[in-house]
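JOB MANIFEST
job_type = single_chain_structure
chain_count = 1
residues = 487
[input]
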Amino acid sequence: MRPLRTALVAACAGALALGASSAHAARPFQTGFNQFPTSAFTGAQAADGFALVKSAGGSIVKLHLDWAVVAAIQPADETAPDDPAYAWGSFDQLVRDTVAAGLRPLVQVDRAPPWASGGDPRTDPNVAAFGRFATAAARRYDGTFDPTDDGIVNPLPRVKFWQVWNEPNYHRFLQPQRTNGKLSSPKLYRRLVNSLSNGVKSVIPANLVMAGGMGPFRQSQNAAPFAFMRLMLCLDTKLRPVKGCGPVRFDIWSTHPYTSGAPTRHALGPSDASLGDLPDMQRYLRAAVKGKKVLSNGAVQFWIDEFGWDSAPPAPAAVPTTLHRRWTAEVQYRLWKTGITALLLHQLADNEWTGPCGDPFQSGLFGYADQILNAQPKGSVQAFRFPFVALRESKRNRIWGRTPTSAPGTVVVQRRSGSTWRYVGALKANRYGVFTALWKKSWKTGWLRARFSGELSAPFELKKRLPNPFYNPFGSAPPPGGCPPTP
């Protein structure tokens, strides 16, 4: 029976691989988290917090470097990483802990100190001073700088990835958004991006800079993401390059595509950007690159550096557990298919649920706990760590997934039959751990899963019609009559 079984495995593997796009399959897909909740990554909890990131399959953590805090007093030499006015505080340890855990830090720099702003951390940041601070930070985290003078060589780790500001199209984070009634924040942000890029690349040219990080919805005084992106990238309304504008220097574009439903749902606003609108955003980015409005180290990447769906529980009006698990796997395929190569979730663990008028952020893969060691995993953890999907595509079934540690090798696909899971084929995961194929079988329903190195993916249900109910992007609907005003 063993020779027959071996032949069957080989035949099924070949059948499943038929139709896979080698160009697409060669793309990597990385995952990670933002530095929330902050307490999970500092002090005595740091080791446990970073261990949870690794257990969930993450390889990147976005850290917040607060310019306003580190440089509250203006240094005599703003480019010197050891100027005594700088208060790097616990950030050195945060970088050390991140790298020691086998994770890569993405450092987001924003918020201007009073001496380099209009008196508020978000208002009129001094562009030149921002670049000098970026130079100091890149020198401090170039992999050779030792902040101590104790005779023991212990340099700080290298930081390669640098991000310019958070949600620069939002009034809450960058002002002014408009000057004399005209949108002015894209031009200001373009200057900030170039200033940081020039700073960090003057230290190590191979450093990579992320721009964008945009909020998804126009709302109130904010700029709509597509309008902001077009003006920042020096494109006209037909996506043609504007003469005398730009270029801008960055290596990675990013956005925060919060979505009120499934991974295919479009935003309600015409210039807003949810998951279903990302192919259009990719089109804008490619137009800017083609028009030579972007300078970069190699091909410009596209990442999602913040995202999540709040879940029920704890938020009763949020995405139910089973659907949350399904979408957590499916979103990774949809992003990868669009050409996006990284997804960072907003939270590792939920904030404490205090009702619909409390904190709205319940999008973690772990529930709230005072101590991160005690945080309980949600059903979506395995779907994030070992994503696997089976979707109808071109009257066939698309199989896609990524192995838990992004390792290459053979992935076995199983289908449920009654209470038993039966072998139906095998696929080869590439050097990034990604595997994909068009399935020759014409099943329209049923449950499938993948096995790799003894580990099982979360089961995924093949459906004729994909679920796409509406949910508030942040999961907590206000009670009747609204919430009381904040004191």
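[summary]
DSSP finds eleven helices and 22 strands in the chain.
The radius of gyration is 23 Å.
exit_status = 0
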